Amino acid sequence: MNFENSLIILFAASMLYVAVTSRLEAYIKALAFQGFLLFVLAVFFNIPHGDFLTTGFIVFETFFLKMIVIPLYLRKVIRDNEILRETEPYIPNLYSLIIVSLLTAVGFLFAGITSKVQHPVNPIYFGVSISTIMTGIFIIMTRKKLITHVIGYIFMENGIFLLSLSAAGEMPGVVSLGVALDIFIWAFLAGVFLRRMQGAFPEQDIDKLKGLRG
Amino acid sequence: MLILIILTVPLLFSGIILLRPSLVLQKILLTAYAVLHLSCSAGLYFSPGRLSAYFQTDELNILFLLLLSAVFLAVSVYHLGSDEIGNDTQGKLYTVFLLLFVDSMNGAILSAHLGLLWVFVEASTLSSAMLVYHHGNKTALEAAWKYIFICSIGISFAFIGIIFLSVGSVGIDSLFFRDLNRNAANINPFWLKLALPFLLVGFGTKMGLSPMHNWLPDAHSEAPSPVSAMLSATLLNAALLGILRVHKITFPAGLEKFSESILLAMGLISIFISAVFIVNARNYKRMLAYSSIEHMGIIAIGLGLGGAGIFAALLHMVGHSLAKSAFFLTAGNIYSLTHSKKIKAVRGLFWQDNFTAWLWVFSFLAICAFPPFSTFISELMIIKEMLAGHIFLLVFFMGCLTLVIYGMSRQVMKMVSGVPGIERENKFRPGLWSYIPQTVLLAAALAIGIGIPAWALELIKNAAGFIR
């Protein structure tokens, strides 16, 4: 139990790291690291008893997709498109750190409140996942580059995955496979569109997406 | 068996098209599947079917399935005479993604499990994003990007809601609608209350309801017109089905008032925003897109009022799907004639193409709920429901609708009247296939308004009764 909790704390720390780093590749590394943590948490601590099909899908989703394929693919998109290595936030990193810390606190506060209502949720899981989802949205809102929006969305998805681990009711294997495939295809499509955008909007800033109005 | 056919044939046809990309074959297979789809839906109407535990028809989704069949058939017939697909290679991707898009909506409509419904709604975003991008220019890219991004974030909210719901339903341990409905009273009300805003806003994003409606005008205006018709008349309905499935759970759980107030708020903001934008519209396809937001808002208001409002909302959905698909397909004719989406650039449609102009005017009348179209009856029912105790709402509602009618009629009349400006060479004349689908769709909307057939009335009544 203690080891499990420290893994989740590491997960929360990785989001704080994301808040302060200004290098794009550090985001990718954080993604892969979170994928690894989710793999360990899912397989060693939340394994459904004897359900090999669901276990297989979870290994596929966390180890294969979240830890290896998606980070490598995004790194390739960054390198191929010669995107600058800076994350270009709208606000200074120090403020980001403060806000993300506050979001983490809000997550735990929320977990504290909900743990008074009778439910089968581990409050640490719950707090960290809520704060990760909020941080993902925060990253999307405060970063200029389109690629950081993609990464922010995947952070948010990681938070949702952690939330689903904390919930007692298991999804049937078919459904979790579908969810994993959706996220994978999403990342793939986002990469394809990013490549096209390189031609149409060379700066790849959200500020440039102003062609459609009214 | 019929469900298996509906779900697998598009995959088979996609494979054939990828192997043999010829435009004629693409159009034939598309229409063949549409005919097959309608026959299977009709078969499922007469004898409800199920495929494993995950897919089945019930009183509610058969209405959505039949509506999807009807609109899809009209759109695929329209393709026979349309030049928007492009050449063989462009058409290959287009047709394959259109088939996958329809299949993902099939899955969303037929699924009997909340998680599976989510998977298919997300899949419908992914498959239709490529269709939005079909024209391949800068604005289409921007629209596709916003579409895939905003919808995915919205749909993620719905997934958070699903997780909260499963936390609250300890002891039920199942997200099959059947189990959720049967044991709704045992769901912890705290978690259900927490889940509802996420689920409603999440599926509401996909349905085009405020506050996350921003993707809709971009995607609908940049997509090829047949795709806009599909997005507006079928995809929004599939998301609505997600909302209805969730809304149904709140009745036995005793939380229907909470759910209704959220729907009412989202609906009212939606019609207000769309009214403001329709008055200032400069692009006629965007105008139609905002009108879709308005009608989804009206449907949400109908659901939020409860009682007879639910029946009115479903009737309105049917009327909107028929009229709006006709409207968007006619917009395709206008685009083929003028090669512009700007209202300013379109003048004297009666002078250029009499039949398209009439279709444009009649679609406008059907969408703005002029009698005797069916939308008139459904809006009248909603107004009647408001008269009983929601007078302020009624004033606001009528104000917004008046603004919409004023804005749309002004733009539509500008487009059909007068004399066209510069004569263009390469004059395109829409063929017979570009008129028939809209005529049939509008005739259906008219028929439902004048005297709804007993079986259709029964269908909508059963669906409304199923929710309550």
Explain what the structure shows.
The complex is a heterodimer of chains A (about 210) and B (about 475). Helix content of chain A is about 75%, strand content about 0%. With about 210 residues, chain A is mostly helical. Chain A has one domain. In chain A, helix 1 packs parallel to helix 5 (about 125-140) and helix 3 (about 50-80) runs parallel beside helix 7. The longest helix of chain A is centred in the N-terminal third of the chain and has 29 residues, at about 50-80. Chain A is globular. The N and C termini of chain A lie far apart (about 55 Å). The model of chain A has no long low-confidence stretch (mean pLDDT about 80). Chain B is mainly α and about 475 residues long. Chain B has one domain. Chain B has helices at about 1-20, 25-45, 60-80, 90-110, 115-130, 140-170, 175-180, 190-205, 215-220, 225-255, 255-280, 285-305, 310-340, 350, 355-365, 375-385, 390-415, 435-450, 455-465; strands at about 50, 55. Chain B has a two-stranded antiparallel ribbon with strand order 1-2. In chain B, helix 8 packs antiparallel against helix 10 (about 225-255) and helix 10 runs antiparallel to helix 13 (about 310-340). The longest helix of chain B has about 30 residues, at about 140-170. The relative contact order of chain B is 0.10.
Which labels suit this protein?
heterodimer; A: 214 residues; mainly alpha; globular; B: 468 residues; 77% helix
Mean pLDDT of chain A: 82
Roughly what fraction of the amino acids of chain B lie in strands?
Answer: under 5%
Sheet with most strands of chain B: 2 strands, antiparallel
Shape of chain B from CA axes?
Answer: globular
N- and C-termini, Cα separation of chain A: 54 Å
The H-and-E topology of chain B, N to C, reads as HHEEHHHHHHHHHHHHHHHHH
Our measurement of the CA-to-CA distance between the termini of chain B, rounded to an integer number of angstroms, reads 30 Å
Helix content of chain A: over 70%
Count of domain modules of chain A: 1
Order of helices and strands of chain A: HHHHHHH
Biggest sheet character of chain A = none
Radius of gyration of chain B: 21 Å
Strand content of chain A: under 5%
Q: Please count the beta strands of chain A (DSSP E, at least 2 residues each).
A: 0
Largest interface: A-B, 43 and 52 residues
Looking at how many chains there are and whether they match, the oligomeric state comes to heterodimer
Number of strands of chain B: 2
Mean pLDDT of chain B: 91
Low-confidence stretches of chain B: none
Structural class of chain A: mainly alpha
